[in-house]
Design goal:
The termini are far apart. Helices cover 20% and strands 42% of the residues. Strand 3 and strand 4 form a beta hairpin. The strands form 2 sheets. Strands 1, 2, 3, 4 and 7 form a 5-stranded antiparallel sheet that branches. A 3-stranded antiparallel sheet has the order 6-5-8. It is α+β, with helices and mostly antiparallel strands. The protein has 2 helices and 8 strands.
């Protein structure tokens, strides 16, 4: 009986891991003015599923920070290259786009997302 509960627990943990976001280490932009606290990948499994990507940015300065974010990855729904602003010491989640699930092609994670995300400060 205990073995049954252990197997059920392992199966539930594995299933929930599929839907939980994957998080990566942070990156720094604009001489440390903006920090990417995390890059998230949320995967909806299945052949019609997709991986959605986002970044949580934090302004490390005590004044608002203007910036422009450009995603060079081949995602659908990429954000337009436009000026944005984060409040003094504030945070902002920015959706980076999504990609459909492709057999044999894993979704981007962590450092891979950081490499396709460019941020310039004004």
């Amino acid at each position: 009986m205990a073995r049954h509960f252990a197997l059920v627990g392992l199966a539930l943990a594995a299933a929930s891991a599929v839907c939980l976001p994957a998080r990566a280490q942070m990156a720094s932009y604009c001489n440390g003015a903006l920090v990417a606290d995390r890059f998230d990948t949320v995967v909806v499994p299945g052949p019609a599923g997709r991986a959605s990507y986002s970044v949580m940015l934090r302004n490390t300065r005590p004044q608002p920070q203007n910036f422009q974010l450009v995603v060079s990855g081949s995602f659908f729904g990429r954000p337009p290259a436009m000026q944005r602003s984060i409040a003094a010491s504030g945070t902002m989640k920015v959706d980076l786009g999504y990609s459909p699930n492709m057999p044999g092609v894993p979704p981007l994670r962590g450092d891979q997302l950081a490499q396709v995300t460019r941020i310039g400060c004004m």
